[in-house]
């Protein structure tokens, strides 16, 4: 019998000071049995960092949410779709291979990858030459210690506050705080 996804509920109060975006979001997150809390929380952080694009890219006429995750490799981990359902921003977390990234660059206006493990720099050096020509791709490394600290905030039901200020995402669960400062690789 196949294992089922674990369902998480997240209430996210977001204040993106850098972009003037303030909103409350409610999400149901299905964590694949092989997905770690760390990866799931990085998906949530990536969504928070890019939520302002609902306004700046789609003028409020779009949907921002989680893709199928590990169970559906042809979908983004996080995706912003415009009112026609066309993917405008495609976000991947982890260390994907070059071919799926190139395919995503052909489908969406913007593709963002957030590698987060201690081996992220090694992954990037091995794949960078294959991705240099993709003008709509950006890659932002998240510090491994910060991503591990973020994983500690994972609960089946989460009430989170997130603030983006000067490029740093601060996530607070009421008693703990984690700062995420993505570093641009491409």
Order of helix and strand elements from N to C terminus? EEHHEEEHEHEHEEEE
Strand content: 35-45%
Uncertain runs? none
Main sheet: strands, sense, barrel: 6 strands, mixed
Read across the widest sheet, the strand sequence of neighbours is 3-4-5-6-7-11
Proportion of residues in helical segments: 25-40%
- CATH class designation: Alpha Beta
What layout of secondary structure does this protein have?
Elements: E1 6-16, E2 21-31, H1 37-50, H2 53-56, E3 62-66, E4 78-82, E5 87-93, H3 98-107, E6 110-114, H4 120-131, E7 137-141, H5 144-151, E8 157-165, E9 168-172, E10 177-180, E11 183-184
Parallel strand pairs: 1-8, 5-6, 6-7
Antiparallel strand pairs: 1-2, 3-4, 4-5, 7-11, 8-9, 9-10
Helix pairs in contact: 1-5
